[in-house]
Design a protein that fits this description.
It contains 18 helices and no strands. By secondary structure, the chain is an all-alpha fold. The chain is globular and about 55 Å long.
């Protein structure tokens, strides 16, 4: 008998196992695994009549199909090949999240042990590479940035698979994970430093319900936290958005400002192509570089270093947020709503049972903050590592999805009698 939940577990393990070679050697493995997850979801719908449980997946596919047709008919800045390529890249990270939340796979003890072993291996081998130097790191994952990303994700996977049935984690597991996370500092990337500070906050300072009892002391601590994040990131902020690739600020040297140019142009596109943007394969994505989008000519940025129509695509897809211009104002609204929706899953977990779901909430919050930080100057979400990142986010959101469904069921009926949302939900105890 084919079990979609077990197949999903195998694909999750495969994704974590191949995350290192996927960066440099097996660059299409994430697309392959994402496609397999989509097939598993379709099989689950057909075999078990669970179409309703995959509502987010159908909405996602519908939105992307709309933008594909829009890109072909209304704007059309690139070739069909580029459009198809960008369609796959943009939808890829959301498929594992949608399928995992719908199927809700369960790990047995062996599954958890295997994932912990793989996580330890991934983080350890990359940490050793960072210690040995750039040549070893380049041979493994091409760039130290990927070392930091994979170490972070592997460490969070290790923590997730160390949570017991009561929602607790041993001090040993936390110390092991924190040691691995600390080795990631060797990547020397400001984005990692920023995420690392949030990790310290959540694992050592955060307490459930802190926002309900927010006071001056908490406000000062929060301000201090963001000041620290800003301080350790200032060099890269200056590099990305002020001085560019030059050693000193020179406003006449436009080639030094590839990333700022993408941000400024992307903002302009939102107004010029309101409300749906320039469409797939048009701007700040790998698809837009595949057959070089005409948008770069239209806005006169085709001569900027790293954005030029040659093999030098150093920065054309080296950031994420400007790429939202492809989807316009509507796309930005949808993107924002997605993350608010995700956080709702996490919030219902911590409010319903803080002791049981504390660490799932922490992991989910760190992942969201990590994606937001990385997206400033990296396309991690749609890159090779994005598949694994969204797998982890889907796993920690499973309890929230289950609780939300239970809440909706209670809201619809109480012993067969329809009730209003919030009328008696709080009075009902739900066994998890």
């Amino acid at each position: 008998m084919i079990r979609p939940d077990r197949i999903t577990v195998y694909l999750i393990i495969a994704g974590l196992f191949t995350v290192i070679p996927a960066v440099y050697y097996l660059t299409s493995v994430d697309e392959l695994l994402s496609s397999l997850m989509l097939m598993v979801g379709l099989f689950d719908c057909i075999a078990n009549n669970r179409w309703k449980d995959y509502g987010f997946l159908w909405i996602l596919i519908g939105i992307m199909l709309f933008y594909f047709i829009y890109s072909l008919t209304a704007v059309h800045f690139n070739t069909l090949r580029s459009l198809i390529f960008d369609f796959i890249v943009q939808i890829k990270p959301y498929i594992p999240f949608a399928v995992i939340v719908a199927i809700k796979p369960k790990f047995n003890q062996l599954d958890r042990k295997i994932i912990r072993v793989i996580s330890l291996f991934n983080a350890s081998i990359l940490a050793i590479g960072l210690i040995l130097g750039d040549k070893v790191t380049s041979a493994l994952v091409f760039h130290p940035t990927y070392s930091g990303i994979i170490i972070l994700i592997s460490s969070l996977f290790y923590i997730y698979c160390s949570i017991d049935e009561n929602g607790q984690i041993s001090r040993r597991a936390i110390n092991v994970a924190f040691l691995l996370l600390t080795t990631g500092l060797l990547c020397l990337r400001a984005k990692y430093y920023g995420t690392y500070i949030f990790v310290i906050f959540f694992f050592y300072l955060y307490k459930p319900g802190i926002m309900r009892h927010f006071n001056l002391k908490h406000a000062i601590g929060l301000i201090a936290l963001f000041m620290i994040v800003f301080a350790v990131s200032w060099h890269k902020i200056q590099y990305y958005f002020i001085t560019g690739n030059s050693d000193s600020f020179d406003p006449t040297t436009i080639e030094s400002f590839a990333r700022p140019v993408l941000y400024v142009t992307g903002f302009q596109i939102l107004f010029d192509y309101f409300p749906f943007g320039t469409g797939l394969g048009s701007f700040a994505t790998a698809g837009s570089a595949l057959d070089y989008s005409n948008v770069y000519y239209e806005y006169g940025i085709d001569k900027v270093h790293g954005l030029a129509p040659n093999l030098d695509f150093n920065f054309i897809c080296d950031t994420f947020f400007p790429a939202l211009a492809e989807f316009g104002v509507v796309g930005i609204i949808l993107f924002t709503y997605f993350w608010v929706w995700i956080y709702e899953y996490l919030r219902i977990m911590i409010r319903r049972n803080a002791a049981r779901y504390k660490y799932e909430f922490i992991i989910g919050s760190i992942v969201i903050l990590f994606i937001m930080i990385e997206s400033i100057a990296s396309a991690t979400l749609t890159g090779n590592c994005g598949f694994v990142v969204m797998i982890l986010l889907g796993l920690v959101c499973i309890p929230g999805a289950r609780l939300k469904q239970q809440k909706n069921d209670i809201a619809e009926t109480s012993y067969g009698i329809p009730i209003k949302i919030g009328q008696s939900i709080r009075s009902k105890k739900i066994k998890i």
